[in-house]
Write a structure and sequence with these properties.
Blueprint: H1 3-14, H2 18-24, H3 29-38, H4 43-52, H5 57-60, H6 66-79, E1 84-89, E2 94-99, H7 115-126, H8 132-139, H9 141-148, E3 153-162, E4 165-178, E5 181-191, H10 194-202, E6 215-219, H11 223-233, E7 238-242, H12 245-255, E8 259-264, H13 273-282, E9 291-293
Parallel strand pairs: 6-7, 6-8, 8-9
Antiparallel strand pairs: 1-2, 1-5, 3-4, 4-5
Helix pairs in contact: 2-3, 7-8, 12-13
């Protein structure tokens, strides 16, 4: 059932015309008809319609259209498999959290505070500290919407610390609707089994970076080497640097859309080049950035 059909039924049940409803909410009949046909009613306008009909908002809009019914079944099915499933309705600014109690991961009772607060708190409580910044960047609402305009689904991989033991986990992100006309999406959190790990090695979802990406990231703890490389390459590229792997990863997370190439010394402190490369390959946002090894050691 479309929004227009729903409003028409509500008016018939209340024995009033759509023209009368438009008058009650302070709009012209033509303007309301146009919004109903294009399904562009705002959340506030929906609340005004419910009030004009003498109904509670939830009571007036409990009837769901076919797409919402299908997504509801999908969410229920996912909940039996995944540790947690978040469903966010962009139009209504409403988030629901469904959990498989047998594999429950604490999502917190945060739905009343909105999407970003709920997802950030979930990440803080469930994601390994080294992966938190990356996951917050991926799940930021503006980034989510931007990515869903380009692809219908993608996967973000991260790790979870459970009683001192690291587990590989992932967040499956699925758009509900067309690229140019979607009103909600689902985030499903799960554990990676052997088949998932094998699939990830074969195919990783990659986010498009800007064609104007011209930054070079140099990761080297030797100051002389860093400055020499930066001076040599600075004529054609903007240079950003890091002195160890952990710092390099943070710089990469913040700048990955603009980075065209990474120059990496393998033997660096805090996080060596081998571990850095492992993290690079596992992250779908920047796993395709080329790397040149610049180590001078055996």
């Amino acid at each position: 059932m479309t929004t227009a059909e729903l409003i028409k039924n509500l008016c018939e049940n209340q024995n009033i015309s759509v023209a009368e409803l438009a008058r009650r909410i302070g709009q012209s009949r033509q303007n309301l008809y146009k919004k109903l046909q294009r399904d562009t009613l705002t959340l506030e306008e929906r609340r005004q319609i419910a009030a004009a009909l003498g109904m509670e908002f939830e009571q007036a809009f409990t009837v769901r259209n076919e797409k919402e019914s299908v997504s509801s079944h999908i969410i229920k099915a996912l909940t039996s498999v995944y540790t947690a499933v978040f469903h966010y309705n962009i139009t209504e600014d409403k988030i629901t959290i469904n959990k498989n109690e047998e594999k429950a991961v604490n999502a917190g009772r945060l739905v009343k505070k909105g999407y970003q607060y709920a997802i950030d708190t979930y990440i803080e409580h469930n994601v390994f500290h080294s992966d938190i910044q990356y996951m917050r960047s991926v799940s930021r609402l503006s980034n989510m919407i931007d990515t869903f305009h380009r692809m219908d689904s993608f996967i973000a991989h991260y790790r979870t610390d459970r009683n001192g033991e690291l587990h590989y986990t992932f967040m499956k992100c699925v758009r509900i609707g067309d690229a140019d006309n979607f009103d909600s999406f689902v985030l499903a959190f799960g554990n990676e089994d052997d088949s998932t790990l094998a699939y990830r090695k074969r195919s990783v979802v990659k986010e498009n970076r800007s064609e104007a990406a011209k930054k070079l990231l140099i990761i080297d703890d030797d100051e002389v080497s860093r400055e020499l490389l930066a001076e040599t390459l600075s004529d054609e590229h903007e240079i950003i640097t890091a002195t160890d792997g952990a710092e390099g990863l943070n710089v990469l997370i913040e700048n990955y859309k603009q980075i065209a190439l990474i120059l990496l010394e393998l033997y660096i402190p805090k996080m060596d080049g081998f571990e850095f490369m492992d993290k690079l390959k596992k992250n779908p946002l920047f796993s395709d950035i080329p790397v040149i090894i610049i180590t001078a050691r055996n």
